[in-house]
Specification:
The complex is a heterodimer of chains A (about 100) and B (about 500). Chain A is mainly alpha-helical and about 100 residues long. Chain A has a domain of about 40 residues. Helices cover about 30% and strands about 5% of the residues of chain A. Chain A is built from 3 helices and 2 strands, in the order αααββ. Chain A has a two-stranded antiparallel ribbon with strand order 1-2. In chain A, α1 crosses α2. Chain A starts with a helix and ends in a 7-residue tail after the last strand. In chain A, about 20% of the residues are buried. The model of chain A has no long low-confidence stretch (mean pLDDT about 90). Chain B is an alpha/beta fold and about 500 residues long. Helix content of chain B is about 35%, strand content about 10%. Chain B is built from 15 helices and 11 strands. Chain B has an 11-stranded mixed sheet, sandwiched between helices. In chain B, α2 packs antiparallel against α3 and α9 packs across α11. Chain B starts with 12 loop residues before the first helix and ends in a 10-residue tail after the last helix. Classes of the chains: A mainly alpha (about 100), B alpha/beta (about 500). The interface between A and B is large, with 50 and 72 residues.
């Protein structure tokens, strides 16, 4: 399976990573190499095999649905690139 | 003793622990010896954020505990921490520019346990960006350098825990924390001539460790001896309610398990690991390892892991898929880097520019490869198929263990350390092949340990790997202890830095 430039552009968009037009051919080539490597899995007979969903057969614990933490606004915002008036600030989202 | 502290930074954890408890050395002296060695070793680029003030404060507290007769296993032992662990107030960047300036407001469970056990934090250690790499070259700090050197070239310490391996091998600290998603503890340990263990998935809490591939990530110790690994693993293991995959199992006394007696144990040798074109030195090392185990009274048994050869492609679907989801959180909003925006840029431009500037090329590729295999139309063909093959890989091991195999012996790496800049420049897959012997057991969730066994013709260290039954790290460490004693690996890199 080979990734063409349009597919590379689409995957970059889905990944929310800006890739300049001039860099797309190299990206497409490297992604093709990675995906080509994965093609080997087509040789495996997986008929009737359930996909693995848990590394060890354990039931994930559920905690009681109660508030366990909170009142840490300052700590939560401490590392934000732009925090104002107790909120994370971002560019305009809705016109 | 404290009058002449020369070389204390090169002690084992066990040796230093005993000397500290006997009062032959203080934690402050031991810490000072490491801080001096760290400053002299800057050219190795192993420590990327040093914490001398925190170290001395913790060392003084350790000395007070020792004086009071309260000396837990790591009391006063100076260690380094991979940059992937959140240490409160200390830069934690996962080797990435996207987390530049990030100082966590919380402490990872593993480091919390280390400090409670009295360990001293010397600083943060270099690594491949987000633990994605096998040479430490994808780090935003530039690569750590292997202290082993045989010609003009600078060699990779391996990756992703390259800084941890280099620091332990160069005696900058007594032990270090690493993490292992596809071999990131065992491959650098082998390249630097030290010991590194990846515990069973769920043995050690992942809480507070920057996530790469959550179903594969495990933290573990990187040390100079098997005994040191046993001591440190005991300190960091155990159930943690903050990690839902953390196992509610008692933690055995790993050090007490080091009896050196493996008589009657069955050691599996998987024929699928004997790869076409395997270097004769690696094959010879493996044969020697078998002989050592046989001489110790173990039985060598030929086994088959028929799906082992599909482990690498399976890993390179599952790990990027999980990474593409985990790394979605780096969006320039809550922490780390945000790109400068142009007039009229909206939130999508902010995401795209921030992530393009903040992530390095290999991380970008893995996020995109992961996004692709999870996208509509390809999910079944790639991701779901990989999860099915993963089930088959795990089943191979279960059948071997059900047939009575106690541990599996394999090479740790397909070569000794290579030169920085020599691999993966043109084709990323070339670098991925470094993980051929290590990824299998991450997929199966099994414990594995790399032990230095010899030097190659160039004079560089080579390691062997032992793979254990789930939750049987104690037995695995004992097997490794036998291998370590038989190999008698005592070589150290000649100091050039």
């Amino acid at each position: 399976m080979s990734i063409d430039i349009d597919t590379a552009r689409k995957v970059a968009k889905l990944s929310r990573i800006r890739v300049e037009e001039g860099d797309l051919p190299d990206l497409a080539e490297k992604l093709s190499s990675i995906l080509g490597f994965m093609e080997q899995l087509k040789d495996v007979d997986v008929t009737g095999v359930e996909p693995m969903t848990s590394v060890t057969p354990m039931r994930l614990k559920r905690r009681v649905d109660v508030i366990s933490d909170g009142n840490q606004q300052a700590a939560v915002l401490k590392n934000a690139p732009d925090a104002r008036e107790g909120f994370f600030a971002v560019p305009k989202v809705v016109e | 003793m404290s009058a002449d502290m020369g070389g204390a930074n090169g002690w084992t954890v066990a040796g230093a622990r005993d000397a500290l408890r006997k009062g032959e050395v203080t934690a402050v002296d031991l810490t000072m010896a490491c801080l001096t060695a760290m400053d002299a070793g800057d050219v190795l680029n192993a420590f990327v954020h040093k914490t001398p003030e925190l170290a001395l404060e913790q060392a003084r507290a350790a000395d007070a505990r020792l004086a009071g007769g309260d000396a837990p296993s790591l009391c006063g032992i100076p260690v380094g921490v991979k940059d992937l662990f959140a240490v409160k107030g200390v830069p934690t960047q996962a080797g990435s520019n996207i987390l530049r300036g990030f100082r966590p407001e919380y402490e990872s469970t593993v480091t919390t346990k280390l400090w409670e056990a009295g360990a001293v934090c010397l600083g943060k250690l270099n690594m491949d960006e987000f633990a994605m790499g096998s040479s430490n070259e994808s780090s935003c700090y530039g690569p750590a350098v292997n202290p082993w050197k045989v010609d003009d070239r600078r060699l990779t310490p391996g990756g992703s825990s390259g800084g941890s391996a280099a620091a332990v091998a160069a005696d900058l600290c007594l032990a270090a924390l690493g993490t292992d998603t596809g071999g990131s503890i065992r491959q650098p340990a082998a390249f630097c001539g030290i010991t590194g263990i990846k515990p069973t998935y769920g043995r050690v809490s992942r809480w507070g460790i920057v996530a790469y591939a959550s179903s594969l990530d495990q933290a573990g110790p990187m040390t100079r001896t098997v005994r040191d690994a046993a001591i440190m693993l005991g300190a960091i293991s155990g159930h943690d309610a903050k990690d839902s995959t953390s196992a509610e199992l008692a933690v055995p006394d790993f050090e007490a398990a080091l009896t050196g007696d493996i008589r009657g144990k069955k050691i599996g040798i998987a024929r699928e690991y004997r790869l076409d074109g395997m270097p004769t030195e690696i094959a010879a090392l493996w044969d020697r390892g078998m002989e050592m185990m046989r001489d110790a009274g173990a039985e060598i048994v030929d086994i088959s892991l028929p799906h082992a050869k599909y482990a690498l492609p399976t890993y390179y679907i599952i790990a990027p898929a999980e990474a593409s989801s985990n790394l979605a959180r780096y969006d320039g909003v809550r922490y780390g880097h945000r790109a400068k925006l142009a007039q009229g840029d909206g939130i999508t431009e902010m995401y795209e520019k921030t992530r393009a500037e903040g992530f390095g090329p290999e991380v970008q590729r893995r996020i995109m490869a992961g996004t692709y295999v999870l996208s509509a139309g390809f999910y079944d063909a790639y991701y779901n198929r990989a999860r099915k093959v993963r089930a088959l890989i795990k089943c191979d091991f279960e059948q071997a263990f059900a047939a009575g195999i106690d541990a599996i012996l394999a090479p740790a790496t397909p070569s000794s350390a290579f030169g920085l800049g020599e691999q993966g420049g043109a084709d990323p897959v070339e670098m991925y092949l470094n993980d051929v012997f290590t990824v299998t057991l991450n997929l199966a969730g099994l414990p594995g340990i790399a032990v230095p066994v010899g030097l190659d013709a160039k004079g560089l260290p080579l390691g062997l790997q032992l793979i254990g039954r789930p939750w049987e790290e104690a037995e695995l460490l004992n097997h490794a202890y036998v291998l370590e004693r038989a190999a008698g690996f005592v070589a150290k890199p000649a100091k050039w830095w």
